[in-house]
Q: What sequence folds into this?
C-alpha cells in the first residue's frame, strides 16, 4: 500500500471494515480485533493511526509486527494468517493488517480460564466496534462452516405464534420467544438459529442483546 492510498483509507474513517489503533497494546486485544474481522466480513486494522485520524506511526515496526503475529498465530484459534504491510511516514511506519473473511468460522480467543472467565470467547464486528458474540451468533457462525451438517427445519405451532408476534411487534428476542411459547432457553435459541440459517429470520447483533426480525 502506498502513502496516498493509506491517506484515502484514513479519510474514510473507522467503520465496519476499518479500525485505527495508535499502537499494539496487548496481543489479546489485537487478537480480538483480528478475529472480529475474520468472523464477520473481513477488514483492515491500521496501527499507528489515532482515533482523530492523525498518522503518528508506530514506535518499533519489528516489535509491533511480532506482537501482531503472536496475536494471530497463538491467541486466535484456529490461527489467522493476516497480510501485514508497512507504509513509511515521516521516519516512522504505519502497520497495515488486512484480514480476510474466514472459511473456518468461528475463531475463538485462545486464553486460560483465569484470563477470560465466562462468555463465548468469540468476537465479531458490529458497526465500528469489536464485540463479544452471543451463543446464538456462535452457532450461526458454526453453521457457515463448509463442514457443518445439512439444515433440517420444520414450521410448527410455536413458529407460527412467533410470526404472529412479529407481525405486531417487528422484532423478538430469545427471552421473549421463551415466554411466548413456554420453551427453555436452549430450545428457543435453537429454533431461532435454524430460522436464521433457513433465511426466514435475520439476527441483529447489539452489544447488550440480540434480536430477530423477518428476513423479508
A:
Amino acid at each position: 500500500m502506498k502513502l496516498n492510498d493509506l491517506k484515502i483509507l484514513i479519510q474514510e474513517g473507522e467503520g465496519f471494515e476499518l479500525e485505527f489503533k495508535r499502537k499494539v497494546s496487548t496481543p489479546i486485544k489485537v487478537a480480538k480485533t483480528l478475529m472480529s474481522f475474520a468472523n464477520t466480513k473481513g477488514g483492515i486494522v491500521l496501527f499507528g493511526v489515532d482515533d482523530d485520524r492523525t498518522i503518528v506511526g508506530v514506535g518499533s515496526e519489528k516489535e509491533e509486527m511480532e506482537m501482531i503475529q503472536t496475536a494471530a498465530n497463538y491467541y486466535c484459534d484456529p490461527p489467522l494468517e493476516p497480510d501485514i504491510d508497512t507504509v513509511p511516514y515521516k521516519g516512522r511506519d504505519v502497520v497495515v493488517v488486512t484480514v480476510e473473511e474466514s472459511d473456518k468460522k468461528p475463531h475463538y480467543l485462545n486464553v486460560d480460564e483465569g484470563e477470560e472467565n465466562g462468555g463465548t470467547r468469540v468476537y465479531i464486528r458490529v458497526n465500528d466496534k469489536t464485540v463479544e458474540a452471543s451463543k446464538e451468533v456462535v452457532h450461526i457462525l458454526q453453521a457457515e462452516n463448509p463442514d457443518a451438517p445439512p439444515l433440517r427445519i420444520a414450521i410448527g405451532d410455536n413458529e407460527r405464534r412467533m410470526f404472529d408476534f412479529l407481525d405486531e411487534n417487528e422484532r423478538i428476542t430469545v427471552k421473549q420467544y421463551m415466554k411466548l411459547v413456554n420453551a427453555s432457553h436452549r430450545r428457543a435459541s435453537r429454533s431461532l438459529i435454524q430460522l436464521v440459517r433457513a433465511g426466514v429470520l435475520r439476527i441483529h447483533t447489539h452489544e447488550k442483546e440480540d434480536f430477530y426480525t423477518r428476513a423479508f
Q: What stands out?
A: The CA atoms of residues 173 and 211 lie 5 Å apart.
